[in-house]
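Much of what follows relies on a compact textual record of a protein's fold. With that in mind, consider the following protein and its fold in token form.
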Amino acid sequence: MIKGHGEGTSRTADRKNEPPKENGAYVFGPVPSRRLGKSLGIDLVPLKTCTYDCIYCQLGRTTNRTICRKPYVSGKAVVRQLEEKLSSLSEKPDYITFSGSGEPTLNSELGWVIEQISGLTKIPIAVLTNGSLLHLESVRRALREVDLVIPSLDAGNAQLYRMINRPHPSLNFSQVLRGLEEFRKEFGGSIWLEVMLCGGINDERKEIFRFRDLIGKIGADRIQLNTVYRPPAEDFALPLPPERLEEIRQGLGDRAEIIPESKLPFGEKPVSYKEDILALLRRRPCTAEDLSRALGFKLEEVLRTLGKLTQDRALTYKLFHQKCFYEIRM
């Protein structure tokens, strides 16, 4: 089922660009997404390999801030795992989504993997990206066959961009804006622009006016407003109350919408599985309720397993706005 490999570059030119050995779990879920329903995730980079070090990131601070595009994980292994996963599912997911541990467009095999998936299934493909590399023609070309791209824009000026996203030194704000505008001209699918709002940082009235002007130039199909729902990398990245989010939504026009918290029902499976819980927590911190909804396990079984894993020092937890979030102990 796997066709010719690579994106047109020599596979022998540089040994450091060779794909790693085919190990690790790169396909996860399906998990409930606040926007995409049941989402089957694909993770193309190691944990916290990103072009940014965002103050609000639920995965903590970036440990490998880079703009180097290379095959961080094996595209062949990803496609093989996806084939196995799809054959085992009793119900198709709503989307196959590139997301996970870092910035997916850093993987130079992204376009090839997308091409393979398009040949395997008709399930819509979505890519969650910070949009920082869309100024590169190779990245825009890699994304041309997907159905939905969700890039982000968290600032209306260069100063806030550096403060909130803490980008790699070679990136700049005008470059990111240019990439978003160029991508809209070339891409035939849907673009949902995500704006992450942090209280007292990018939610002031003048910033919203700047956002509105930039959004008009980018031409996204939807503007999705988000705020800090999970423990962020920095304590000063604070969530906005619902009423302030609604004020901002109204100020940004008809295409703007607020991303809701997950309302999917709790699971009904009779037992909990430690490895499934650990696999999801490696991607992001979760509450017990998040895990129950995501994995389809009864809440009491999830709580029992979390208690055991915490006692065994495999997990730690953090309180954030009256909610208890579990995460892998580093």
Remarks:
- The chain has two domains: 24-264, 265-330.
- The domain at 24-264 is CATH 3.20.20.70 (TIM Barrel).
- DSSP finds ten helices and twelve strands in the chain.
- The first helix runs from residue 75 to 88.
